[in-house]
Amino acid sequence: MITAIHMLIYSDDPAATRAFLRDVNDIQKVIGNDLTPTGQASVKQTAVAQSVHSEGARVKSSIDDAEQAIDRFRSQITPTN
Q1: Residue range of the domain that includes 61
Q2: What is the rounded distance in angstroms from the CA atom of residue 18 to the CA atom of residue 73?
Q3: Measured between alpha carbons, how far is 9 from 66 in angstroms, rounded to an integer?
């Protein structure tokens, strides 16, 4: 499981990752426990939600890059028979 701290450590863009996590936290505060369509609609078109969407794409790309780097490293250090 990737936690927020893992995201920051492995991110190629820590500033975008921090902004993404901050905005997701803000959305959680606004919605609270109201996950109904009405609660979701109240947040969906806000600037924060739009920002989370674009920041999330950058963070996902950064995490994908980090996972690939870890896989390459793992293959380099894994002994062959």
Answers
A1: 4-74
A2: 26
A3: 10
Residue 15, pLDDT above cutoff 70: yes
Q: Into how many domains does the chain fold?
A: 1
Within 10 angstroms of residue 80's Cβ, the number of other Cβ atoms is: 4
**pLDDT tens column, 16-62:** 778 888 888 888 877 777 778 888 887 787 888 888 888 888 888 88
Q: Evaluate whether residue 81 is within a structural domain.
A: no
Cβ neighbour number for residue 11 with a 10 Å cutoff: 20
Torsion 6-53-24-22 (CA) sign: positive
Give the CA angle between residues 57, 17, 43 to the nearest 5°: 65
> Do the domain assignments include residue 80?
no
CA distance 20 to 11: 12
How many Å apart are CA 22 and CA 20, to the nearest integer?
Answer: 5
